[in-house]
Write a structure and sequence with these properties.
alpha/beta, two-stranded antiparallel ribbon, 9 helices, 29% helix, globular
Length: 277
């Protein structure tokens, strides 16, 4: 532990803490009892969907204890007073905020309390969090040890001929960093979706929308078709993404979690202190 005096709530589900960068944003962790004191702990970041429902840490709790991995869940609240804009965080920059940089600062904030290997971490997001996860991959591939992208409603393709956010052609204008295809391809990528996730009412885009791509994000395509297009475009880039279709699941993140965990266990080195001791 980095904190010199341990608090009663420094393990298990921690209290929600204000971001040091902006107190309107919050973070909470699950810190397993199985931490290995001889080495820094691995980190898995879990990004919520549009509803902001916090089911993620509970679903990954056993994985955390088994592997000694610390879980970090950011909370990106809706900033509009009328609650109308639930999507801001998915696009990485909105309302004058850089949500990618906000998350990176939250990780450093946590690493000032717990002994976390924060240089590289795993990332999973569901629905709106899946949108966040694959766009974060494009901006910061060097920070990711693995990324799992769950059922994103609208996708940005790694297409260097399409403007952001449909593609990645001009991300340097928006974010001050270039798209590094080789670095993206070096990250283990997992795509996961329910095989009954076919509703389109929430995700349709019209031709005037910046994310509109005919046959990708238009009103005639569902999340399954969209995640398949993302897989194909990542493959054309040179990546080898793994995709899982969860039988019988619609847009239900808790039903996707076991598939994510199974994949993570194949790509993340585990530190099981209980077995080692």
């Amino acid at each position: 532990m980095i904190r010199s005096v341990l608090h009663p709530y420094d393990s298990g589900f921690t209290p929600w803490m204000s971001s040091r960068m902006d107190q309107r944003f919050l973070l909470s962790l699950y810190v397993p009892e199985s931490l290995c004191p001889a080495s820094k702990s691995q980190l898995l970041v879990l990004v919520h969907g549009s509803s902001r429902w916090d089911w993620l840490r509970q679903s990954f709790r056993d994985f955390s204890e088994k592997t000694g991995t610390i879980l970090l869940a950011p909370l990106f609240p809706v900033l509009n007073s009328d609650g109308s804009d639930v999507n801001a965080y998915k696009w990485m920059h909105s309302h004058g905020f850089r949500y990618d940089l906000l998350l990176l600062d939250m990780i450093e904030q946590a690493a000032s309390i717990w002994d976390i290997d924060f240089d590289r971490f795993a990332l999973f997001g569901f629905s709106g969090g899946g949108q966040f996860a694959h766009r974060f991959l494009y901006l910061h591939p060097e920070r990711l040890s693995a990324v799992s992208i769950g059922a994103p409603g609208n996708v940005s393709l790694p297409d260097q001929n399409r403007d952001w956010p449909a593609g990645v052609k001009n991300i340097e204008e928006h974010f001050g960093m270039k798209f590094d295809a080789d670095a993206v391809c070096a990250v283990p990528i997992h795509l996961v979706i329910g095989d009954a996730d076919t509703e389109t009412w929430e995700i349709s885009k019209q031709p005037e929308d910046p994310i509109y791509i005919s046959g990708v994000n238009d009103q005639n395509t569902n999340r399954i078709e969209r995640i398949n297009r993302l897989r194909n475009e990542l493959s054309l880039l040179g990546s080898i993404p793994v995709i899982d279709y969860v039988k019988g699941a619609s847009h239900q993140g808790e039903l996707l979690a076991p598939s994510v965990i199974s994949w993570l266990e194949t790509v993340i080195a585990k530190e099981d202190c209980r077995l080692a001791g």
